[in-house]
Amino acid sequence: MLALRSTLFNTAFYANLIIRMILLTPIYFLLPRKKAFNIPKRWARSNHWLMEKIVGTTFEIEGLENIPKTGCIFAPKHQSFWDTYALLPWMDDPVYILKRELTWIPLFGWYVMKQRMIPVDRGARGKVMVEVMRRTKIEMDKGRQLIIYPEGTRRPPGAEPHYRYGIARIYRDTQVPVVPIVMHPGLFWPRRSTMRYPGHFKVRILPAIQPGLDPDEFFNQLVETTERESDRLLLETIEANPNLPVPPIAAKRIAELKAGKEAVQATA
């Protein structure tokens, strides 16, 4: 039954994407850019509804009050395709730095470019990266929120952190708050898998790290805060979903965290 529900959801998810793109494209490209962004935001909400009704997966967001009223950088943990779109309805005017190959996809690439997303060649250096940074600052000076995944790519729940220093350079150059976000959608929508699992999880938006820190100090604070809160939320998520199958990497990390807690309690 779980495999059937996963298949039904995956079919509905991609059908929802393709049909909306085809039917709403004329409206999308006639609307002003920011108003047109309501179409992807509604698409995201419809996916949440599909996942709840077909799979039985729900979520809640904590810490919305931590989102600054001005331009900022969102720095979420990245585990699943889910977290690439799921928070759009709660963001005012987000901008992504993304792989340039995504802009080549028919329809999808056109949607991306209308929103002035910033394509980048991941292997680029020098002048190309200077241009990417220049465009990023232009968009953020307009009050937009940059979404950047500090680890660069999807990582399974419980995996050892692998943060990239690029976010510290962007923090230094843009001088805006950085908002860490922790969540574990990878337990319910695993990467490289077609399975979708029922349950309930939290997205936790942490207090912003304010501008003005030395880049190294900022980077260390971001990693320490995000990983501490991510570990705490991992334990909470597993405790709240006792029937959820736990992948080996997550199980190993959970065992380490529980052993650490027991050691602290034993010495208290």
Automatic annotation (TrEMBL):
Superkingdom field: Bacteria
PANTHER family: 1-ACYL-SN-GLYCEROL-3-PHOSPHATE ACYLTRANSFERASE
Pathway as given in its UniProt record: Lipid metabolism
InterPro entries: Plipid/glycerol_acylTrfase
One GO MF term: acyltransferase activity
Keyword Protein biosynthesis annotated: no
UniProt keyword list: Acyltransferase, Membrane, Transferase, Transmembrane, Transmembrane helix
Name assigned to this protein: 1-acyl-sn-glycerol-3-phosphate acyltransferase
Transmembrane residue ranges: 12-31
Taxon lineage: Bacteria, Pseudomonadati, Pseudomonadota, Alphaproteobacteria, Hyphomicrobiales
Organism from which the protein derives: Rhizobium oryzicola
